[in-house]
Amino acid sequence: MTLPKNFFTTGLIVGFAAIGIISLAYLIASQTPPHSSQPPINRPIVLPESKLPKFSSCADLNSTLTAAAAEQRSKSRSSDKFGSFGISAGLGLQATASETSADYSTTNVQVAGVDEADIVKTDGSFIYSLSNNKLSIVKADGNLNLTSSIAFTDGDQPKEMFIAPNRLLVIGNAADWEETLYKTQPSGMPSAPARTILPPRHYYGRLTFVHLYDTSSPSHPRRIRSLEFESQYVTSRLIADHAYLVMNKNADVVSQENIQEETSLPMYKDTGVYGDSAVPMAKCTDISYIPPILESQYLIIASVPLDSPNDEIEKEIVLGAGDNVYASLENLYVAKTTYGDYRILPLLEHSLENSNEKTEINKFVLSEGKISHLATGEVEGRLLNQFSMDEYEGNLRLATTIGHVSQQGALTDNRVYVLDSALKEIGSETGIAPGEQIYSARFMGKRGYLVTFKKVDPFFTLDLADPRQPKVAGKLKIPGFSDYLHPFDENHIIGVGKETVEAEEGNFAWYQGIKMAIFDVSDFANPRELHRVIIGDRGTDSEALRDHKAFLFSKEKNLLVIPVTLAEIDNARKQDINFRSNTYGQYVFQGAFVFDVSLEEGFKERGKITHYDSDDVFRKSGDRFYGGDLNVRRSIYIGDTLYTISNLKIKANSLIDLSSQGDINLQ
């Protein structure tokens, strides 16, 4: 397979897999509010003792880091010499919305009871919106009124948030610390790890900040705790009243003559315990490692209690790193893909059997804020995002792709693995759609769904009833592909992606407009496309293709809403004899597309909502496609009102007829 020519900036059409996974509980209440009147119970369990070895001293830790850093530099030089194939394993995000007892939507999450941070939240009374370095709290009671706002200092960049009863937790990137903060441990703080004076250090990486607010009086939110971690934020989850943060930190390597107690450890500040002083997160002898050690990075898992602002922060620190995270109510899985020497070998001369493209998974047990490392496992191939992993009946299912697609051809294999509770492989299915890459997947109990792409969209059904023998049950080939799969009910799946047209020349296809489809899987061996709708022409895009939190769905309300940047080509141009399918449309609209969705009638457009004063204003907006501040990013509903949110505005419309009910500026 040759690399499609319209994915990169020159128009090449290849993308990485969008792999989604879901549990059966998702169908019932996949978006239960994290703090509803009857929240899911995070059952207390006895945490197992971590079996990972720990370092015997700071000298032991530092010498190990020195060796690991040297090995990584050597591999980096080799990779640079031969060039890379643009491999990427960054975080991608996807999930599902569902009904709750309260009549308002909540964040589209992967697992019921495991909340995910986002830029917009609601508790049914207030809307919390994070944009342009400010958090706005807006009363939504028929009228939109700005109740209060929180401005963040220069250098701090808030990224996302959680809400809970009387609590607001904001997570973001902080400005670098000044080296003058590194002084001796203040007196009167016996719980801080003992250490001597640290040598001066400069920090060029960013920090992760966490601000906890008391919102019992929404008009006067009060910050009650601030934390700063010397690390890079990956993602987080909220279970019951504890937020679990996953972070990475490049390890400091200190020369042997300057080694002192805790000199190579990541630091943090906690106003709830240590005031404004920076202290090590742990002792050298508390740091675990996974032999053989290949990383000169720390993987940091920290839990922040929302109800106890002065409690010590629980932390688990392992020498390693993570780029994809999955969480159930009781376990947290952190995965990291490594490529070995694969990147430096010519693609078509390379064998999948010795590609060294592997993903290591670390499993942590969670219970009431406590964290303990339980197991480490490994599978071949790479994960694209959090939905590449799913826990079901104690087993972990994973979907991976080995190999890559290029202009010279494709050597790929797609696989499904099942690991037991100790992360030992007990089953696998390999050889799925060779020569293609996974674009999306969903797992629902004993069933799974997988989409790969080359020129058409093979939609696979997976039989996972026997975890020791996962297998492909059926498939359907149709034009286009799905970036995101969302359960409508037990026998129907919504797919959102792109329509495609085969290129006039070459073995590839061109992206066209957004495609939404409903797949009927009641005959599991023979899935079929029940309904489809195409939005716009080539160039049409939606944040929902990359971020599940931009996808709003309610089966009960027959409602589906996604933000769309609409590109269109006039019909006369399409009829021109010289018209080619790689032609881009002109941008004519940005806003929310609102659909009625049902199994009987499919997708029926209810209407569109924009935050621009007119289409002409939108067309003249130079940053319209690249995140204009009036671009609709999220949609939520409270009762019979639909709220659309951009960086600068919240707009209210009736769910019945989409008539305007007012708006509010967030400047």
TrEMBL record:
Transmembrane among keywords: yes
Task: List the keywords (alphabetical).
Answer: Membrane, Transmembrane, Transmembrane helix
Q: Which Pfam families match?
A: Beta_propel
Among InterPro entries, the record links this protein to: Beta_propeller_containing, UCP006425_b-propeller
Q: Where are the transmembrane segments?
A: 7-29
Superkingdom as given in the UniProt entry: Bacteria
What is the protein's name according to its record? Copper amine oxidase-like N-terminal domain-containing protein
